[in-house]
Amino acid sequence: MTAQIIDGKKISMDIREELRPRVDLLTDKGAKPGLAVVLVGDDPASQVYVRNKERACEKLGILSVKHDLSQETSQEELLALVENLNQDPSIHGVLVQLPLPSHINEKEILYAISPEKDVDGFHPQNLGRLVIGDPLFLPCTPWGVQELLLRSGVQVEGKNVVIFGRSNIVGKPLTMMLIQKAKGANATVTVCHTRTRNPEFFTRSADILIAAAGSPGLVTSEMVKEGAVVIDVGINKVNDRLVGDVDFEGVSKVASLITPVPGGAGPMTIAMLMANTVKAAEYRIGL
Ligand SMILES: NC(=O)c1ccc[n+]([C@@H]2O[C@H](COP(=O)([O-])OP(=O)(O)OC[C@H]3O[C@@H](n4cnc5c(N)ncnc54)[C@H](OP(=O)(O)O)[C@@H]3O)[C@@H](O)[C@H]2O)c1
């Protein structure tokens, strides 16, 4: 079997185009969506991510306001900025780019963002709403994975899903999304992590295998059931090349559908961030 490639770039562009009329309508109503992105320090990868988010906003006609703060910014200064953005009526979404410098208490900053402007979906109120099946904002990367599956015609209901990774931003929220009694969900989900013994035992019966571990070469063809769908969320730099967590070449011979890295799950995160920003603006004016 040679797997068909899921084109995340194309799917993400479709989603972004679908948002355009909603952005236009909001703008006509004087409620142009606005996203504030806060970057602390000069981490090169974060700078690239922030630039990509700004570009996506510009292309869609979303107001994008970048706050570029020095590495030495204090907790109090950052909290004050978040508070200002929470109050700013031109801003509908507030995103603080992670990771933050080690002297900053990340949790306190994320909790300070107004849940109604939390377009990353990391605030405990939004994560709690996700758990009980009444989400406001879904975290962008897990939502992107779910959309990739939906738009590739993958039936999730009743399937065995195995997820590698249990982080608060990918693995855990994705697990919560896929077990919901809802469209694009209703799966039986197993989560593997670094303490899982013999993960192959679980992965070999997975209809859908999702790797979000940040561990290159983690998923090999022997671990994958014939015909499985494989989604690779991992982004790792190996010898100056970007690779995922999945041995793409080997696993492509066994899987039925597979995402590449780059060009798979990655572009979906920005598309879903745009979707959350539009949703936040609609929410504000009661649309
Ligand atoms: N836009 C995007 O596409 C996007 C967005 C976010 C993240 N990512 C990528 O996705 C990956 C995961 O990100 P993250 O923020 O969730 O990372 P993280 O916070 O480091 O969490 C990694 C998770 O994977 C597990 N893990 C790591 N190595 C493993 C192994 N060899 N076997 C089994 N489990 C293993 C860890 O287990 P323990 O809990 O036991 O430590 C942990 O739960 C990274 O490569 C990241 O760059 C991509």
Explain how this protein is built.
It is a single chain. With 287 residues, the chain is of the alpha/beta class. It folds into 2 domains: 83 residues, 3-Layer(aba) Sandwich (Rossmann fold), CATH 3.40.50; 128 residues, NAD(P)-binding Rossmann-like Domain (Rossmann fold), CATH 3.40.50.720. 40% of the residues lie in helices and 16% in strands. The protein has a 6-stranded parallel β-sheet. Helix 2 links the parallel strand 2 and strand 3. The longest helix has 21 residues. It is globular. The relative contact order is 0.17.
Query: What is the percentage of strand-forming residues?
Result: 15-25%
Could you name the CATH homologous superfamily of the largest domain? NAD(P)-binding Rossmann-like Domain
Q: Estimate the global geometry from the Cα principal axes.
A: globular
What ligands can be seen in this structure? NADP nicotinamide-adenine-dinucleotide phosphate
CATH architecture of the largest domain: 3-Layer(aba) Sandwich
The parts where pLDDT drops under 50 for at least 5 residues are: none
How confident is the prediction overall: mean pLDDT? 97
Number of strands: 11
Assign a percent range to the helix content. 40-55%
Kindly identify the CATH topology of the largest domain. Answer: Rossmann fold
How many separate domains?
A: 2
